[in-house]
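WARN retry 2 of 3 for item q-0093 after timeout on previous attempt; input resubmitted unchanged.
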Amino acid sequence: MEGAENRQKDPIVVSGRSHKKVQSLINASHRKLLHLETVVDWSRGVDFSKPPKIEEAGWLYGTSYWDGMTAEQKNEVLWLETARDVS
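OK item q-0093 returned
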C-alpha cells in the first residue's frame, strides 16, 4: 500500500536525477517573474494578421481540410482555436 500512498501525494513519479532537474527548472521559473503589465506594450493592440501560433500546432494541420484553405482562412482558424483554448 505504500506505493499507492506515494502516488496520491505525488502524482508525477520521476527518478532522482529527473526530480533534481525538474526542481531546478521550477526554482529558475520563480527567480525572475514576467510582469506582463510592463513587458507587453498593451497600447499596440493585437495584430490579427499574424498567426497566434505555429501552423503545425493547429488541429487541422496536415489534413485535406487544412490543405484546401487559403492563407487567410488558416490564420483565422488558428485564431479561433486560440480563442477557444484560452476561454
